[in-house]
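## tool: complex_structure
## caller: assistant
## args:
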Amino acid sequence: MTAPTTPLLVVDDLRTVFHTARGAVRAVDGVSFTVARGETLGLVGESGSGKSVLGRTVMGLIATGATTTVTGSVLLDGQDVHGLSRGRRRRLWGPEVAMVFQDPMTSLNPVKRVGTHLTETLRRHLDCSRAEARDRAVDLLRQVGIPEPARRLRQYPHELSGGMRQRVVIAIALACDPRLLIADEPTTALDVTVQQQILDLLGSLVEERSMAMVLVSHDLGAVAGRTDRVQVMYAGRTVESGRTRDVFAAPRHPYTEALLASIPQLDAPPHTVLRAIEGTPPDMARPPAGCRFAPRCAVRHDDCAGAMPALVPLSMPLSVGSPAASYDREVACHHPTTSAAFAAPGGPDGR
Amino acid sequence: MLRRLLISTLELVAVLFLVSLGVFLLLSLVPGDPAVALLGEGRTPQEYEAMREQLGLNQPLLSRYGDWLGGVLTGDLGTSLVPPQTEVLDRILSALPVSLELAVLGLVMALVIALPLAMWSAYHQGGRADRVISAATFGLLSMPSFLLGIVLIAVLVNALGIFPRNEWVRLGDGIGGNLQHAFLPALTIALMEAAMFTRILRNDLVTTLNEDYILAARARGMSPLRIMVSDALRPSSFSLVTILGLSIGRLVGSTVIVEYLFALPGMGKLVIDAANQGNYPVVQGAVLVIALIYVASNRLIDGSYGYLDPRTRRARA
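## result:
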C-alpha cells in the first residue's frame, strides 16, 4: 500500500454540544484522533459514551445548527468538513465518507425497493445511466455476498432477513467507493451468528478496497481482532488510545481494564459472576468534576475528583516488543494502572 | 380476488340500504309538506289532504319505502313531488357534475397548497415558518366557511373585480367560463381543507423525519428536497390519504353553504331544498348517490394503502 504523508482523517479537539431544555449536553467533549489511509480504528465505550454522536459529527451529519454547536475541526483528506457549505458537504457523503448504521430494520426505507436505495445513491454521485446504475447495484450486492442479486433489487426491505438487510446497508455505503467508512455499531441489532459474518465481511471489504474504517462499537470482541488502533471513549472524552494489540494486552486506564474484565469468558467455571462496571455513565448535561470516571472507578484516589486528567503519551513498557517510535499510546488518568496488576483475559485478542 | 370483490359488493349494498332507510325515517320526522309546497299557502285543509292522498303520502311509512325501494331496484328513482316534477335522476344528473367539479377542484387546490406548506413546516420544525404556518392554518380552521366565502367575494369580486358575479356556466358551455366561476367557490373549499391537510401531513412528516432511514438517506448525500419528496412523503401520507377519502364524499354532499353563497346548483342545495319541502324522492335519490360516492372513494383509498406501504400488501391479499 502506498503511504501518502497526510493522514486521511484528522479530528482535532472536536466538541459537540446539544442545547436542550435541561441545559447544554456535551456529548463529545474535546476528542482528537487521526486515521491513516487504509487504517481501521475502533471507537469503544459503553452506551452513552458519545461514540455514535462522534461518528456522526466526524461525518458532518451532525453540524452546528439551531440547537447544536460543533467546534474543533474535522479534516477529511484535507477538506474541513464543518467549514464546507451544506451542498459541498453532501457531495462528500458517498464518494468520500459513508456510514453503516446500527439497525438495518430501521435504516432502510420500508417503502423503497432495495434497488432504488442503491441506484439513487449511485446516480446522485456518479454520472451514470439508469442501466449502468442497475448493473453496478447488482455487482455491489454480489460483492456483499447476497445471492440472486438481480431478484433482490426488486424486493422491499421487509422481504429480507436482518443479516441480508445489513449487507444491503453495507452495499449502499460502498456504492460510491468511499475512502472512509464509519460503521456505527454495525452488528448490535443482529443475531450473534450473523454478527460474525457481517464483521468478517466488513473486514474483507475494507482490505480489498484499502479503505479506512472507523468501527464504532461497545463490543470489545468485535473490535479486538479487526482494528489496527483503538480509542476508548468515556463520557464524551478519550480515556485511552493505542494500537489495539497493545491496549488489549495491557490496558492502562481503569475504565479500559474494567471493560475488558466485563467480557464473559468461555473458559470461566460455571456460575462465575459476570464482572460488570458498577453504575452508569454520567449525565452529560452535568458531568462530574475532575476525572469523569472517578465516581465509578475501583482504584480511585483522593485527587481524582479534583482536576480533569489530560490525555498524555505513554512510554513503552518493556513487556511490549514494539519499536519505541511507533508505540503511539495515550492515556488520560491520574493513576494509570500497571499492566502487571491486571492479566488481560483470553490473551492479546481480548477474547 | 373474486371473493373480495363479492364481499365488498355486498358491503356496498348493505351500506346503501341502511343509509336510504335511515334517511327515509328521519325525513318523516322533520317538518316539510310537499302538499303545501305544491299548492302554496292559504288553501283549505281538505285541499291539502286531497293532494297528500294524490301523492300517496297517506300510505304507511314502510309501504312507501317499499314502493320507493322497488322502483330503485328496477332503475327508477321516481319523480319529484314538487314542481318542476321531473325525473329525480335528471335532477341529480344536473346537480352532480357541479358538486363533483367543485369537490375535485377544491381538493386538488387544497393539496397544491397543503403539500409544500406541510413539507416546509416540517423541515423547519419549531422554526418561525413552522409557527406562522401553524397559526395560519389554525385560524383558517376556526373560521366558519361562510365567513371565508364572504371575505373572498368581498375582496376578489366586489372590491377587485377579478372574478365575475353572474350565473354558473356549465362545463359543457365552455371550460374557460366554467373555471372562472368555479375558481372562487373551489378556493373557499380548498382553503379550509388545505388548513386541515397541512396540519395532519406536517405532524406525520415530523415523525417520519426522525426515522433512521431519513438520517441514512442524508448520509447518502441526498438533498433535503429529494429526501422530503422521495423518502418522507409516502410513509407520512396515511392519515392524509384517509382524510382525503372522507373529504371527497363529504364535499359532494355538504358544501351547501358554499353553494348558496356562490349560487351554485349543486347536490347540497338540491338536498336541502328538497328536504325542506318533504320532497322525499329527490332526497332519497340524492342521498343514495352521495353514499355511493362516499363508499367508492373510501374503497379507492383502502386500495391505495398497498401502494403507500408495500408491507401491507401481502397481509391484505
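## assistant note: The radius of gyration of chain A is 21 Å. The first strand of chain A starts at residue 9 and ends at 20. Handing back to user.
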